[in-house]
Amino acid sequence: MKWTRLLLVSLLLITHSVSAWGQCDxxxxxxxxxxxxxxxxxxxxxxxxxxxxxLFSDSCRQTEIVCPLDQLGEYRLEATFVNDxxxxxxxxxxxxxxxxEYLVESMVRFRREPxxxxxxxxxxxxxxxxxxxxxxxxxxxxxKIKYLYTNGRKGDEFPGPFFxxxxxxxxxxxxxxxxxxxxxxxxxxxxxxYVGYYVGNIDTDWVEEPPLFPxxxxxxxxxxxxxxxxxxxxxxxxxxxxxxxxxxxxxxxxTRETKTFRWWSSVSNWYFLTCDFELATE
Length: 282
Hints:
The protein is mostly beta strands. It has one helix at 2-14, and strands spanning 24-32, 40-46, 52-58, 62-69, 73-82, 88-97, 101-114, 125-137, 143-149, 162-167, 174-175, 182-190, 193-198, 217-222, 232-241, 253-257, 262-279. It folds into two domains: 2-138, Sandwich (Immunoglobulin-like), CATH 2.60.40; 143-242 and 272-279, Sandwich (Immunoglobulin-like), CATH 2.60.40. Strands 1, 4, 7, 8, 9, 10, 11, 12, 13, 14, 15, 16 and 17 form a 13-stranded mixed β-sheet that branches. Strands 3-2-5-6 form a four-stranded antiparallel β-sheet, with no helix packed on it. A hairpin with a 5-residue loop joins strand 5 (73-82) and strand 6 (88-97). It is globular.
């Protein structure tokens, strides 16, 4: 959801450190789509010390849950789908906190989808679960970003602003939407804080480009086509990952499939890189 993403990015803009014991928040975006009203979701969290919390157990169609994570170590988050037809489907995801995390995001979606995904004419459907966990981490000091320039003319096909990402680490870096493109968002400084969140249009049909290899440099910009930016102070933000094999942020792979249910899931690590810059009045 757009507002959920706005909240998460706003928190990342404000929060640039975690406590000494690695405390951060788990944000869960939960929804149910195209399923009977008797559908029921359950979310349980097992903490590193062995204590268990029931985070959610309800038939509501949509909600957001915030849960503090105050221990380092391994967590287990379980999502369960239940309905009045005695269907009970569960999947457990495992993730660990090391103290480098700003935030942990989870998306849980229960919905219906075609029985045969290869046939767009298929009218038969089954329920499915989409369950992702994304850890947001501080970027490596060896991954650097700097502001380059802005074309500054409204109506330009690519108005900018443009940035340079320099990879002095030993890791290969991949972009949020496509592996070889680093598209970010823009916030404006107003009354003592960065506010707003502009993403713009995302077009994933661009020609294939290689990722950012160690010792190389790439240009980054806002969304797929940039944005005209009037004078002011701004913060450019983007996500990158070093996970391989590559998958776009918040994507999921087929994890488990039966005749009556299908699970899609992923656990991924994404680094949050920012660059503050100012455009002066000409």
